[in-house]
Amino acid sequence: MRLTDPRALRAYAHPLRMSLVGLLRSSGPFTATRAAELTGESVASCSYHLRILAKYGLVEEAPGGRGREKPWRATARYTEWPEYSEDATVAEAADALSTAVAERYFERVTRALENRHRLPKEWREAEQFGDSLLHLTPEELAGIGERIDELLRPYEARASDPSLRPEGARPVSILRIAYLDQDIPDSEEE
């Protein structure tokens, strides 16, 4: 799903809404009652935020509900938004969403690092945490992104089809963040 409406971008930037969409993608469909159990929020709050997400097409009612207990499901596996826009309103809303997503990523990474001592040795050794400083052109950076996408693509179907997961497979989040590092002086000297 690609969001370009500034109202939708701002709506999705809410932390609980991002959590709900993520949970529906990984564990849905489920009701607002189950959403409250998973998030620690009230049923009324989850119901309200699910309706807002539905307004912008990020979630929809799933079949099989009874009475007031209606299940929800995500409408897409991924959400995209503009990296750049000539429209200042879209650009501002997209940047705010990107910032909210980065904050969410780093909260999750921090929690994972705080709890990694509980993991079996093989998972602690397999996890990765580090960085690389490369000198690239925009075209080279885009090419690296395309190659990373190619590396990950064979594993993507496992998210929606558990029969494809080998024994011992667990959910692993892989963050891909590459940015022009403006904190390091640009030097033409070699």
Describe what you observe in this structure:
With 190 residues, the protein is mainly α. The chain has a domain at 1-128: Arc Repressor Mutant, subunit A (Orthogonal Bundle), CATH 1.10.10.10. Helix content is 49%, strand content 3%. It has seven helices and two strands; from the N terminus they run H-H-H-H-E-E-H-H-H. The protein has helices at residues 6-12, 15-27, 32-39, 43-55, 88-115, 121-126, 138-156; strands at residues 59-61, 72-74. A two-stranded antiparallel ribbon has the order 1-2. The protein is globular and about 65 Å long. It starts with 5 loop residues before the first helix and ends in a 34-residue tail after the last helix. The mean pLDDT is 92. It comes from Streptomyces vietnamensis. This is ArsR family transcriptional regulator.
Give a quick set of tags describing it.
single chain; 190 residues; mainly alpha; Arc Repressor Mutant, subunit A; two-stranded antiparallel sheet; 7 helices; WH-like_DNA-bd_sf; ArsR family transcriptional regulator
